[in-house]
Amino acid sequence: MNDQERTRKIEKLARLIRYYILVITTKAGSGHPTSSLSAVELMTCLLFGDIFRFAVDRPEYPSNDRLIFSKGHASPLFYALWAAAGKLSEEDLLTFRKFGSPLEGHPTVSFPYTEAATGSLGQGLAIGVGMALNAKYLDVLPYRTYVLLGDSEMAEGSQWEAIQMAAHYKLDNLIGIIDVNRLGQRGETMEGWDLPAYEKRVSSFGWKTLVFDGHSVTDILAAYRQVLGVRDQPVMLIGKTIKGKGVSFIENKNGWHGKTLNQEECVRALGELGEIDKSLRGEISRPEQKMPKATSPSGPVTQIDYPADRPVATRKAYGNALVRIYPQFPAIVGLDGEVGNSTYAEIFKEAYPDRFFEMYIAEQNMAGTAMGLSRRGKIPFVSTFAAFWTRAFDQIRMARYSAANIKFVGSHAGVSIGEDGPSQMGLEDIALFRTILNGVVLYPSDAVSTEKLVEEAARHEGIVYIRTTRKETPILYGPEERFPIGGCKVLRKSEKDVATVVAAGLTLHEALAAYDILSHEGIFLRVIDLYSIKPLDEEALREAAKATGAIVTVEDHYAAGGIGEAVCSALAAEAVPVFSLCVGEMPKSGKPQELLDYEGISRTAIVKTVKEYTAIAQKRGKPA
Amino acid sequence: MNDQERTRKIEKLARLIRYYILVITTKAGSGHPTSSLSAVELMTCLLFGDIFRFAVDRPEYPSNDRLIFSKGHASPLFYALWAAAGKLSEEDLLTFRKFGSPLEGHPTVSFPYTEAATGSLGQGLAIGVGMALNAKYLDVLPYRTYVLLGDSEMAEGSQWEAIQMAAHYKLDNLIGIIDVNRLGQRGETMEGWDLPAYEKRVSSFGWKTLVFDGHSVTDILAAYRQVLGVRDQPVMLIGKTIKGKGVSFIENKNGWHGKTLNQEECVRALGELGEIDKSLRGEISRPEQKMPKATSPSGPVTQIDYPADRPVATRKAYGNALVRIYPQFPAIVGLDGEVGNSTYAEIFKEAYPDRFFEMYIAEQNMAGTAMGLSRRGKIPFVSTFAAFWTRAFDQIRMARYSAANIKFVGSHAGVSIGEDGPSQMGLEDIALFRTILNGVVLYPSDAVSTEKLVEEAARHEGIVYIRTTRKETPILYGPEERFPIGGCKVLRKSEKDVATVVAAGLTLHEALAAYDILSHEGIFLRVIDLYSIKPLDEEALREAAKATGAIVTVEDHYAAGGIGEAVCSALAAEAVPVFSLCVGEMPKSGKPQELLDYEGISRTAIVKTVKEYTAIAQKRGKPA
Fold first, then answer.
1. Yes or no, beta carbons of A424 and B201 under 8 Å apart
2. What are phi and psi of A335, to 5 degrees?
3. Residue B53 DSSP label
4. Do B157 and A159 touch (CB under 8 A)?
5. Model confidence over A567-598: pLDDT tens digits?
6. Sheet with A578-583, side-by-side order of all strands
7. Beta-sheet pairing, B312-313 with B489-492
């Protein structure tokens, strides 16, 4: 096909794609036709202009180019492209936004050509960074990652995190395409059609930039071809476009975001498009036949070996564990947010520098990058302080809708970090990660269980959160102990137990200390290590509740969404009182033990709670 | 004082400040001396070089300049500056990081000169945007806002959100100061000492930039003086500095972040400083005598007036409410993240354009800006989709440590938004906001209660979250009904109630529908509108639990941290079963009612749950 023929075919395909966009959004009665129409040429040229390389019948093929719609609301365009490629029929398309259809309002992975679920803006470029890092440094594959960006979403800081990181890692296989259609949801963007503003900013971070008319097939193709020659720099294509392009009465008009044409308007609009060839199909070029570089972990396989009498911080055991299990799980990749010497991700980095990426202080991009790596078959272990995962929670929430396989690790949990004060204390992380549908939340109390749980996390397909502790804690378990996800450990148990204390992490050691104090007075407690906060070992909890008659939960975390509430709701049907000890006073700087006492989550508080309860229970004549 | 004298005095003060930094961090045994030492000249020149204007005995004085330590770990420098200004004794300083001291590890508002708690990096500039917006557009005061920034934290996207927004609003009263000391926590920053990289990037967003030697008093003073003449642009001062400056054996050395000198090292270091004049005090120039511009809301005072038979979306009532109450609460400022036509913040914007700031799609900066406005006496009402507050949760969490008075509003809660799909569904927001210590979470079910609760929120000092719904809901209440924070409404009640259904928002209407269905069959329910999810009306819940014997919670939210868990933990001591109906299946696109059924949170699910429970209870011989 010569260039003229190609241009004519793309123009025809663009008309077909516009037809699909209009028809399916009008049928659905909701969706974003105008935001789709502006990017039609940008995307049609990419897919059908001999730029994009993709085995259309094998979306998972490793050397396929990747296309992420960061502006997920342009889903009508996304689906229309795959219809034009012959992978969806018009009938399929007409299920758009209907219950049970894989063609959801914003792309999710229920549609097999979706690389990652989008719709919360400003997330696609970071995911692209993950995919591009994978191609350049891990799988060593020739694929390129293209990310379609809206101009409105360039206001999100996460974009600039991704921009700086892509330049830092010289990702010449990452191409952003900004669809500068001037209009956001409720009016003009900050920059409007000031394309040089975008150019100046993006290039100031070290990207190659190209500005052009985003509706001129010739200009767009020329820009894409130029991209192919760029080395050591990511490239941003900045296209000037018109929102609603192709339909005169909605073009460049405010008030048409997320608004569909009614039936009559749709007929008028289709009339403007000109002749549509519904039998036309675009061809996508085939990818290079190349498979990922094999990884053969060469490090020594080590055993778990912690002297029983020497306390070790679980955060340190995390680093050790990663190194130990990597030979078994060569898909592991380590990421850390510039605190690797605190989270101990640095232990892994030092052992396997090629499998580690420093993500600097940019947690949103780190979570997005992990998402991209996960979708390319890696098992990212991603660490920062527990407190700072609050920074990336939108990305974490969205990862669930992409069926991500990511292991998040949060160190420095709770007030027990001490003197650094509240800004550094992870006190909401359990609540956050417990909201992740089907997610797993693990909270080890000693080095051995940390090692085992890191291994369980690697084996588990899905999102796992591991909470680690700053302070050193005594070794509780032998190296043969098993820690299945969803289990718990009963560490103290007798026939005379008056209550069950449920704890994890540092507070488990407080519970054990409370046990020692009370047992000297002849009061016995059951003590449970709740290392798996989600899923919860409900059976074991119910059993302990029935056997001992009361539950005391103790956690270095706020009440809401924490261990206490998890246990309470698991036991909602049982007539057993649950006392929740948790962080409830304004946290501040101080020594760890001072703060545990201040918050009422120390051994002293446990002893007091148990004594008060047993006194009342005895008064009431209950067995105590 | 001539320039030479001033320079010499600043140099002497800098030595004293270095002395304080070293002594207090060594005494505390933790903290960040090296990150403090690098910025000594930058800050000493600002405070004591006739640049900063501040009534030292009146930190709240409205036309004081403002200084925010975004790199909060440089707190030793921050406190040392105020000691040098005569506001702290050396004895005070030596309480640094001790339990109960206002001089916490990272600044919090327990120290009266702290403008906002920092320590989670990348937050200070956005707070500065809020303070600068206030000075320029609201209070119309001549104060300037200075923000000390670390070079490492420039990797945070939130910085670039603030940078673009400050330029957009032409905040010539906002001055950032980047302390480019090259080293982060675990090694070199992405840019190291490449100062032109910072200059190029920041200036590409429209800022005036100045680059200089960050240890040269002459150069620094010259830069600050140049700032005073800049118009319509924010200014970024970019100083090349040395981490650990002044102590030869830690200068520019990796491995000294967050590490203190031991006693012997401290003595050596002090020896290097030269003569210290402990009696020396710096003088801060006095501010202009000017008071904030008075606001006299001129709009008409309207009454709540919703026809009983016409459904209204609570999100719309939110917009109406703001307009209605503004004359009573003239400190209100509206902010919205480019979705004002969805959250209906636009109703307020249209009525009071001078009291509204468009914050575009940059939620982190929006939360930070609200923080800054709050600290300057405003009552920011800040809105976006409930789902997108996950984006700013680190800022929200930190706001608590600044004693913020902010009203967050999240629209489009739950699966009931329908076709747009999971990316747009707020399903974790209750959990998130419930973790905020002493925070308030409100969830109105009709337009009238929304109006009342917006008013309660404005009156309440502190962080309040208001959850609104996309769909229109019937009017439930008359205009005279009261909705105190911490209360609830019993909407259906009889002697024969077999269970209590607790719901809020859209699911309350499902509960009322379930009541209608069941009452036709002679089965009666108590129905509670839990409009105040935090604080919870525990007494009313306990009473209902006792009276009816069972509780069913129904919410358009995930289980973790939601209404079900809140109610379960409130009733942990009661022997009453709690059944929690909530979102538990992977959400998807569909019609609202389809999705309520799919998730088991519709009237059908409530009816089924109640029938199953009563059948079992009857079998067991319980009264049902």
1. no
2. -130, 145
3. B
4. yes
5. 999 999 888 999 999 999 999 999 999 999 99
6. A489-492, A524-529, A497-503, A551-558, A578-583
7. unpaired
Which of B391, B432, B433, B533 is best to mutate for the A interface (most A CBs within 10 A)?
B391
Q: Is the pLDDT of residue A623 over 70?
A: no
- Helix (H) / strand (E) element for B411: namely strand B407-411
Please identify which residue in the block is written with the tokens 């390319």.
A376
- What residues form DSSP beta bridges with B240? B180, B213
How many helices and strands (H and E) does chain B possess? Answer: 22, 19
Separation of alpha carbons B424 and B91, rounded Å:
53
CA dihedral B612, B617, B623, B624 (to 10 degrees): 0
CA B423, B429, B434 angle in degrees (round to 5)? 165
Specify burial of residue B543 (Cβ count, 10 A radius: 0-12, 13-18, 19+).
Answer: middle
pLDDT along chain B (624 residues), means of 10: 93 98 98 98 98 97 98 98 98 98 97 98 98 98 98 98 98 98 96 98 98 98 96 98 98 95 97 96 97 80 90 98 96 98 98 97 98 98 98 98 98 97 98 98 98 98 98 97 98 97 98 98 97 98 96 98 97 90 98 98 98 86 54
Q: How far apart are CA B306 and CA A290, in angstroms?
A: 66
Q: Look up tokens 């191409």; give the residue.
A: A175
Characterize the bridge pairing of strands B66-69 and A356-358: unpaired
The 10 Å Cβ neighbour count of residue B259 is 15
Residue B396: closest CA among B363, B424, B359, B443: B363
**Number of neighbouring beta carbons within 10 Å of residue B616:** 12
The total of other beta-carbon atoms located within 10 Å of residue A332's CB is 24
Distance CA(B150)–CA(B531), nearest Å, equals: 43
> What does the block give as tokens for A432?
């956050």
Using a CB-CB cut-off of 8 Å, the residues of chain A touching B572 are: 568, 577-580
Contacts of B153 in chain A (CB under 8 A): 361
- Residue pair A341/A504 in contact by the 8 Å Cβ criterion: no
The span from the CA of B361 to the CA of A152, in Å, is: 7
CA pair distance A124, A103, nearest whole angstrom = 18
* Nearest chain B alpha carbon to A345: B186
Torsion of CA A86, A92, A94, A96, to 10 degrees: -100
Q: Give the Cα separation of B553 and B502 in Å (integer).
A: 5
Q: Decide: B13 and B248 in contact? Cβ < 8 Å.
A: no
- Alpha-carbon distance of A35 to A44, in angstroms, equals 15
Q: How many helices (H) and strands (E) does chain A have?
A: 22, 19
Q: pTM of the full predicted structure? A: 0.98
Q: Are A441 and A434 in contact (CB under 8 A)?
A: yes
A561 neighbourhood in chain B, CB within 8 Å: 431, 434-435, 560-561, 565
Cβ B355 vs Cβ B332: under 8 Å: yes
- What single-letter DSSP state applies at residue A559? S
Instruction: Let me know: does B17 contact B44? Beta carbons within 8 Å.
Output: yes
In sequence order, which ranges of B352-484 are alpha helices (DSSP H)?
A: 363-375, 393-400, 429-434, 447-459
Among A153, A419, A558, select the one facing B97 at the smallest CB separation. Answer: A419
B235-240/B464-467 β-pairing: unpaired
SS3 of residue A155 by DSSP: helix
Q: Do A564 and B569 touch (CB under 8 A)?
A: yes
Strand partners, B238: B178, B211
Give the model's pLDDT for residue B621: 67
pLDDT at B52: 98
Q: Is B435 helix (H, G, I), strand (E, B) or coil?
A: coil
The continuous run of DSSP H or E covering A450 comes out as helix A447-459
Whether the Cβ atoms of residue B68 and residue B176 lie closer than 8 Å to each other: no
Note whether B161 contacts A: Cβ–Cβ < 8 A.
yes
Cα gap B357→B407, rounded to integer Å: 15
